[in-house]
């Protein structure tokens, strides 16, 4: 690793001031799982590394009106084990549980899972299907953008130099809604996904028609993807097995996966169809359960 | 200057920013029990506890651990008495070549601290990230069950 200045500010204001001063010479470090690995491999050589671990107020999980707000420094393991998330958004707790190993989940943070912008990561896929928002701060201002607009390219997000992710806000599921996350792992249980799909299905009061469906895909393009064409097939339609299969087929034409050691591009495309159908089948079953429980 | 408490002992160390926690333990403090296998967070040979939670010390900066408590394999035994997990790995044959063992033992101790009587599925999920090329894992699972005072599978 190449030497760098190390700063460990204690407050948000101080952090934002340092990030502004160093601009694109600075890199934030949170859990360090991705950044230290990249620095060891000399894929990243920042002049200044700014640790946000000591910044107060970024590590909370709280219920706000209709959503759960998760601070950027919350670790994957904390999110997975949070009683609030387990109870209100079990699909999100389960998604964090599918990341790597417990050792990695003790280190990696929710903010890092977004800012790292690796399309093979799990949490962004579910956060995208849940229509979560990313809170971003910079010296003198802030903004919030939907997760669906946060990713630009491999390892490239919408963050500008000087910006810090401070939290992600995840809306709770509406009534008669089910959600699912499926991670296809043909190699080892701690691997990154070959194909990953998160889905939500909201039923109309008749219990038969779909009011809204959301589908997000991981590991099959340069960023996680919202698959709106497949979603459009479902919304307003009467749900059935053939329709879910058709949605899977639609999704496979939208993806552009790479050939790699997790499978050929052609294989990943075929598995996208299978996994979308599976994710929708699960979400639909959950939606019917939710509708019965409330009706 | 960073402050680390390692196996109960306080240290003040002047380390460069790029020093990994693993190198700091091995070369600055002489605690060579923790090993470097992959160097990228996958294999578990470098597993240590940071404030009681297991992490990969190969991808943690030493400065990341400033002000915190580290437990390594050297900190498990009390005087001459092995930790029950260490004893169980010896009794049940939980290792062969031994390169992965410090990481296995530290991870297993953390497991039993969190879940004193884990099921086999819980053991497998917890130990998933500690790779072993020798044992085929059966003996590791049996060692942990023995340490937890459970009848061997
Ligand atoms: C062996 C291994 C296996 C893994 N397996 C999986 C897996 O199966 N699935 C999965 O989803 N993930 C997996 N991961 C984790 C994942 O790939 C990232 O490493 C992790 O999410 C990054 O989080 P971090 O807090 O460690 O980020 P860091 O390494 O600290 O930072 C990563 C990047 O994000 C930036 N950053 C971090 N926090 C902020 C912030 N608050 N604001 C602005 N920028 C920020 C940093 O500058 C850096 O560019 C694995 C990691 C390892 C090492
Ligand atoms: S050496 Fe750290 S996990 Fe392999
Ligand atoms: S005992 Fe040899 S690798 Fe585990």
Description:
The complex is a heterodimer of chains A (295) and B (153). The radius of gyration of chain A is 19 Å and the shape is globular. Chain A has eleven helices and 14 strands. Chain A has three domains: 47 residues, Uridine Diphospho-n-acetylenolpyruvylglucosamine Reductase, domain 2 (2-Layer Sandwich); 111 residues, Uridine Diphospho-n-acetylenolpyruvylglucosamine Reductase, domain 3 (2-Layer Sandwich); 116 residues, Enolase-like, domain 1, CATH 3.30.390. The model of chain A has no long low-confidence stretch (mean pLDDT 96). In chain A, helix 10 packs across helix 11. With 295 residues, chain A is of the alpha+beta class. Chain B is α+β, with helices and mostly antiparallel strands and 153 residues long. Chain B has two domains: 74 residues, Ubiquitin-like (UB roll), CATH 3.10.20; 64 residues, [2Fe-2S]-binding domain (DNA polymerase, domain 1). Chain B is built from five helices and five strands, in the order E-E-H-E-E-E-H-H-H-H. In chain B, strand 3 and strand 4 form a beta hairpin. The longest helix of chain B has 14 residues. At the A-B interface, helix 2 and helix 6 of A face strand 4 of B. Bound molecules: flavin-adenine dinucleotide (FAD) and FE2/S2 (inorganic) cluster (2 copies).
